[in-house]
Amino acid sequence: MIKVIVVEDDPMVAHINRDYLQKVPDLEVVKLLANGQEALDYLLKNEVDLAVLDVYMPEMGGIELLRRMRQEDLKADVIMVTAANETKQVEELLRLGVVDYLVKPFTEVRFMEAMVKYMAKKKTLDSVEELDQEKIDLLIGIPTDILSQELPKGLQETTWNLILEYLAKVKGQYLGCDELAASVELSKVTVRRYLKHMTASKLVDSRIDYETGGRPSMKYRLRSL
Questions:
Q1: Interior CA angle at 69 toward 116 and 22, to 5°?
Q2: How far is the C-alpha of 114 from the C-alpha of 101, rounded, in Å?
Q3: Are residues 194 and 167 in contact, defined by beta-carbon separation less than 8 angstroms?
Q4: Burial call 203-224: b when 16+ CB within 10 Å, e when fewer
Q5: Scanning 11, 16, 68, 127, which has its CA 20 to 30 A from the CA of 53?
Q6: Domains along the chain?
């Protein structure tokens, strides 16, 4: 079980972030903390895998907390959540090793994308002793590639990722098979076969659309975890 803390001085935002996190399998929100000093005190005494951390807080802000975490060699990963998007600040946070940076106001879809990337990287690092080039590229770069591991026999990774990337791009919209096939320039038969496996793997949600004016049809969207 991955242990997570939320460090946020706005109680409403803290509870929203907690509610999002509670939808993620194999993850436990162990503490909500109101400022960086509270978080540092907690981290020095408790093992935590991930901190979802705001920048601007009383007593100690998120950037100072992150610096102190690195000085103390605390191993928790950090996803930064903030209204600030100045280039210098983002650059510093990237140097300090944040795994993602969410600018308020962000959507639940974007939050879940951050968690999908994080959980997959964590799983990869915890499950192997050595990394080949493909896995290293995966950890550094493409977010939806993480979902293409252990594909059913006969399915191609490139096609799998192409469909997932397009579903992520349209941000939670339900699409019919015909519309999706045209958008990714694949045949309807191919797309339908991949969607069947994605739905079975619980990566994609499906629903019946009765408002077609004719025969009902299935529509699909990338699942919110």
A1: 30
A2: 8
A3: no
A4: bbbbeeeeeeeeeeeebbbbbe
A5: 127
A6: 2-105 (3.40.50.2300), 148-222 (1.10.10.10)
Buried b (16+ CB within 10 A) or exposed e, 74-85: bebbbbbbbebe
Among positive and negative, which fits the CA dihedral 140, 146, 152, 156? negative
Indicate if the pLDDT at residue 134 is higher than 70. no
- What is the reported pLDDT for 133? 62
Largest CA distance in the chain: 64
Measure the CA–CA gap between 71 and 74, rounded to whole angstroms.
Answer: 8
Q: Is 160 buried (19+), middle (13-18) or exposed (0-12) by CB count in 10 A?
A: buried
Distance, in Å, from the CA atom of 68 to the CA atom of 146, rounded to the nearest integer, reads: 31
User: What is the CB neighbour count within 10 angstroms for residue 94?
Assistant: 12
168 and 220 Cβ atoms separated by less than 8 Å: no
Find residue 217's DSSP bridge partners. 209
